[in-house]
Specification:
CATH class of the largest domain: Alpha Beta
Number of strands: 11
CATH architecture of the largest domain: 2-Layer Sandwich
Shape: globular
CATH topology of the largest domain: Nucleotidyltransferase, domain 5
Helix content: 25-40%
Number of helices: 7
Largest sheet: 6 strands, mixed
Number of domains: 2
Strand content: 25-35%
Distance between the termini: 35 Å
Length: 222
């Protein structure tokens, strides 16, 4: 049983994958309560499915970018469980998780998460070989700057706030917004991606996994 943990932003998500299907999944909005909510949520997931911590055979975690605090908490718990249970760990970039849940509604996707202070973290993807593949690095920006770079038809998905929707709706750039069901970043998709990597032997040394942080312009690093 693989446990997937995503605490990268204020959208938290957990999933259990038994190798064939998702056995449990929960996604909810937290208000910077990652520390208080994560461990009880894991216990609830295991209890709901009649499992125990000893049934875990692998751990997957969102690696970042994202909230400094959220990433530290999620990675800390994931690494601790992997070391304590002596099971493989797989760390997946946050925007890869988001992209994995978006259908091919075009050839270009920009995946977005909120990073606070009116800024977003965005990364472009291209559809190739039946999946979204990163077409550039993740970057901290804002909606106006991001839209200036759009030239071809582009699909947007992820944490699009009110300001983002207003600009996307008003722009004359060739943009589309993915339906909300595909915009939600889910630990179920993290589990699917991670399971394939576990099967291929592409796992991490828990002691060496570090979060992916992007420095936010104008904001001091904590």
């Amino acid at each position: 049983m693989l446990l997937a943990i995503d605490t990268a932003t204020q959208w938290m998500s957990l999933a259990l994958h038994d190798g064939r299907q998702i056995d449990y999944e929960a996604t909810w909005r937290t208000h910077n309560n990652h520390t208080v909510e994560l461990t009880p949520a894991i216990r609830a997931a295991l209890k709901t499915t009649g499992r125990s911590i000893r049934d875990l055979s692998a751990i997957a975690v969102a690696q970042g970018p994202g909230s400094f605090t959220g990433l530290r908490i999620g990675l800390g718990v994931a690494k601790g469980l992997a070391l304590a249970q002596r099971v493989p760990l797989v760390a997946i970039p946050t925007l890869d998780i988001l992209a994995a849940g978006v259908p091919p509604l075009g050839s270009t996707l920009i995946a977005v998460i909120q990073v606070g202070r009116g800024r977003i973290c965005a990364q472009p993807f291209h559809w190739a070989r039946d999946r979204w593949t990163g077409a550039g690095p993740a970057q901290i920006t804002d909606w106006a700057q991001l839209l200036e770079r759009v030239e071809n038809e582009t699909l947007f998905a992820g944490e699009i706030d009110v300001a983002g929707h207003a600009l996307l709706d008003a722009t004359d750039r060739p943009v589309r917004i993915a339906p909300g069901v595909f915009a939600l970043r889910r630990a179920g998709m993290l589990a699917e991606v991670a399971w394939d990597r576990v099967e291929a032997g592409e796992t991490e040394d828990p002691a060496r996994v570090t979060p992916i942080y992007l420095h936010q312009p104008g904001v001091p690093h904590p």
